[in-house]
Amino acid sequence: MRKLLLLSVSILMVTLTACSSNDSNDNTTPTYIKFKVDDVTYAYQAETNTSLKKIITGRVGEGSTYREISLSMPVNPKVGSHKIVVDPSSANDAYTASFAPNSDTNSDGAIGKIIITSIDFKFIRGTFYFYADYGPTGAFINDGEFVADK
Question: How large is the greatest C-alpha to C-alpha distance in the chain, in angstroms?
């Protein structure tokens, strides 16, 4: 009876150990960039490129179905609210945004903010909104959020 009890406790311990999670080693967080235009939600895989600036981009489609959104920030962004600037005087320190509703049209965000909510060893998280001005029309980009590689 004692051997059966020890065996049961051992099996239970192995099962609990095998099923435990360790959030500090979680590598499953997907990167994405999500936003709304005219009450339609778009969500894309986020790509992060870093050179003189950090650029987070989401894109999909080709030709008339092509759509792209980009957020640009300093290489080492800071947590907080950052005004989007169109014509930055110090380009490498500026926060900018752009939106292309198709392959023929692209615009810079004229009015808006990028809010960096957290930065950890692997990801940058935040929200954003801006007005994309492209000629006689434009679009409000709202309810934006992202998780991108640091």
Answer: 84
